[in-house]
Amino acid sequence: MKRTLYLFFLITFISFGQKKISLPQKHTVDFQYPSISDGPYVFIEEDHFLRKSIKNGVVSSERLEKDNFNTEYFPNPAIFNNINKIAALSDIHGQYDLLIELLKNNKIIDEDLKWTFGDGHFVIVGDVFDRGDQVNEVLWFLYDLEIQAKKKGGYVHFLLGNHEYMILQNDLRYINTKYHKTPSLLGIEYKELYGKNTVIGRWLRSKSTIIKINDIMFTHGGISKEFFSSVDFDLEKINRDMRESIDLSIDEMVSNNFYNIYFGEKSLTWYRGYYYHDITDKQLNKLLDKIEAKRIVVGHSSNDNILEFYDNIIYCVDSSMKLGKYGEILLIKNNVFYRGTLDGELIEL
Description:
Layout: H1 2-13, E1 28-29, E2 38-44, E3 49-55, E4 58-64, E5 79-80, E6 85-89, H2 96-105, E7 121-125, H3 135-151, E8 155-159, H4 162-168, H5 178-186, H6 199-204, E9 210-213, E10 216-219, H7 225-230, H8 235-245, H9 250-255, H10 258-263, H11 281-291, E11 295-298, E12 307-309, E13 314-316, E14 329-333, E15 336-340, E16 346-348
Parallel strand pairs: 5-9, 6-7, 7-8, 10-11, 11-13
Antiparallel strand pairs: 1-4, 2-3, 3-4, 6-14, 9-10, 12-13, 14-15, 15-16
């Protein structure tokens, strides 16, 4: 109950200033969807914000002053050094309740959903979107947690996975049924919920696809030898190119082979080759030398728990959270790697 109340107040009041302008609220009831509750979705207007929410099929709108949220979000650096503790997981896919349970039991947050990981770095290795029905709850939670972490000297890194890019590029094949109904109730298209003129949409467009912490690379799918040979392997440039592609059309990206390199099956967000051993140990070690890393942490391919491959070089942190029953978190403390189970048990890898 405490968690539910906290999330309600977080979503209602999270801001950088709390002053509001009271306007008459519009209420509409769609009798086709009386059970739908969703939001908020915060739209950036010329001189104010417009916050829209749905509760039991009823749509409410509220105008907020311009100082309630940021309208500019700047990318974090791509490289961090001398970090003593790191946590990583992936493929949350809208499973908010499971995520909260996992983070609480592994001491990333407390009972009030407050950051307790100190100066640690927490990496979400892609795929918050699709499948589950609490995507928006996860997004606002991470938005707030990122602010909390920075105040404590820590970091939350939300890396974009293939499902983030799919949503931002309006590929809706895997959205939950609920999210077919939300746009209908709000009278807009789904792509507008996370467009450039929304708070969360702009925040997402500031995110990276690949980062390096100490000697560990983090990216959703993996670094294939084909991708490495096709690009200038500069993390800042790769992230910038990926961010700039979000609002390009497929035709624009296909015309110069960008789409095949950055969104094909060998790309950072779609590659699954580590699981099929399509790169030899020798090739992988050579690749690691070139990118100046010793390990790679990925998601994207579901397993029952966190796994390691190639003699503790590759770590997969997709523990099938999308099913809503179980999940794990990778914890790295003083260069020792652990599986953090759902009940908080640490198992050294």
